[in-house]
């Protein structure tokens, strides 16, 4: 699959062009939704508003993570400086990550996608799975078991700042700044609304965010036609998303993942238009485009449960 098969040089330049305005609008809109969730619970604190706020925040944690991803590709803002600054301090650090480290690992995923050397292959190579196994994963996510490991790894990494070893202290510094950023968020909430609202952020990060992040990842590469084929139409998936899915598992056009692997320099805010052009020119005549994330879940949980004949036990 070559870009020259479907795009002119002018079209390629257009789709890879970056807009500070569109990038800023996407970044601000994500944070405004987070602020809205805090305000909702601050003024109307009840189980329903808390549940809604945590779901909204989970989607925005993923959405802000998508912005980190875009900045890691240096494809969001029109300058490297803006991508580095906003990608680090308004995206990566708030979602418990480090831009440089993330970008280095993720670019390897792009370089080796469709091969056995794909650094992310272990995250989805087991799919399809049986329904029981998938339910167990969901339960671990929602109950915070996955999140405890996620947060715990970052706490332990930051604790290396107290090591006597200079290399360990240096490696710990980026993780220390993650927690300093979290403290800054608590301080901002304290002086604007109330510090306890931070519990919505960390609570969602440890539960619902783990779930939506898993669903996004599985939808992108799980149970694809051929994970070891270099053609992105074989190793990557695009999934159409309804409004609820765009608010939760598919923020910021991340569902157009096949297009992203086809040409990674296309900013997120141009992916839907890019998809429509490729589709109109026949790029997906032999490619299954899933109609929803529910369709994907059904697809990746088609593996039958194997039981022991003598006992009927799984």
Would you summarize the structure shown here?
The chain has 314 residues and is an all-alpha fold. It has helices at residues 9-15, 20-43, 47-72, 80-92, 99-112, 121-124, 131-142, 145-159, 166-192, 198-206, 208-221, 232-235, 243-247, 257-262, 271-280, 293-300.
Round the mean pLDDT to the nearest integer and report it. Answer: 94
* Main pleated sheet: none
Uncertain segments: 305-314
Shape: globular
The counted number of beta strands is 0
Number of domains: 1
* Structural class by SSE content: mainly alpha
Helix content: 55-70%
Strand content bin: under 5%
Give a description of the structure.
By secondary structure, this protein is mostly helical. It has one domain. It is 63% helix and 0% strand. It is globular. The C terminus is likely disordered.
